[in-house]
Amino acid sequence: MNLEESDSFKDQIEKNTRQRRTVMLSIVVCSMIAALLFVMIMILKYQDSITLKMFLDDKQISIPKGLYRDIDGKVYFDVKQLGELLGYTYTKGVYGEYNEDADSCYLQNDYEIVAITADAPKFTKYLETTISKTAVIAEIPVTTIESNGYSESFSVVDAPAKFVDDKIYVCKDYVTEMFNMQIDWQEYRIRLYSFADIVADAKKIVSKAEYTVFDGNYENLRAALYGYAIVGNEAGEFGVYSLANKKELISLKYDKIEFVQNTKDFYITVGNGTMGILGEDGSTVIKPSSYQDIKLLDEEQRLYIVEKDGEFGVLNKNGQVVIHAEND
User: What phi, psi does 242 have (nearest 5°)?
Assistant: First the structure.
């Protein structure tokens, strides 16, 4: 090998060495960039995970300023803002009265009115439909059992509504009943589920269970808020299905079932026209043996007015007679 060839060989080795160093350096730089990008992504994900977000039916929405606040160690919502998020119209004053009392209000959608007064031990819901006869919820044709003006009261004695800074706030514990919705509140995620979304999920479960009828009475659809569905068959027999347990809570054998939201009772009617009451666990409160009509008298003490052959009496929550059905 001559000197020229030796120098050329050395140059080639040095060139190859430089190329290898360049490749290695590129790999190291790329690895560092990838690691940096990974760290940045993880930081961004973490920051996103600790950023408070709100969703309505799985769609992210902006959180209205002042939507909620802490009062007496509990979370309270601005009832006007929350109602409007869920499609309610807010009106100041006492429902049914012509006044402008700032510490009272009522909210209305197409089916009912929610009347609220600050510091009152209860709020009241009135069935007042303003819908057409072709109304639907989650593609289910909706009717009503009771006529307009039917009302139910709900006790909030342990956390009544508050009037603060000229606004009415309601406790998070009671918004399910007030607005027929659900809240799943994790540390940095507030998820609101509307009535239509809850009913749609219930409809899917009932359909998979192969029931031919999913009761579309508005009052009965509200049972889905608590994990129940009133179902039926082509023979006109009705029962109650547990959406959580995927099994029948009340057998399909009753002529009519009505869910009462404030007590979570199921009013049942049997073939001879008599009525009874079953509790939300399926237990018997009042046997459907001899009463033609049953109405709730007091939701707190759970007293019921019963009618038998045109005479009236009172039963308690255990089905025991308080006043015999022998009064005009």
Answer: -85, 115
Question: For residues 206 and 199, is the Cβ–Cβ distance under 8 A?
Answer: no
DSSP string, 85-108: HTTPEEEES-TTS----TTEEEEE
Question: Which tens digit of pLDDT belongs to each residue from 74-113?
Answer: 999 999 999 999 999 999 999 999 999 999 999 999 999 9
Question: In the chain, which ranges are continuous DSSP H helix?
Answer: 3-49, 79-85, 175-179, 195-208, 218-221
Judge contact between 216 and 143, C-beta under 8 A.
yes
Beta carbons of 209 and 246 less than 8 angstroms apart: yes
- Cβ burial of 151 (10 Å; 0-12, 13-18, 19+) is middle
Cα(117)–Cα(119) distance, rounded to whole angstroms? 6
pTM of structure: 0.84
Distances (CA, A) of 19 to 8, 9, 11, 26: 16, 15, 12, 10
Band of pLDDT at residue 327, cut at 50, 70 and 90: confident
pLDDT tens digits, one per residue of 109-138: 999 999 999 999 999 999 998 877 678 999
- The burial of 120, by beta-carbon neighbours within 10 Å (0-12 exposed, 13-18 middle, 19 or more buried), is given as middle
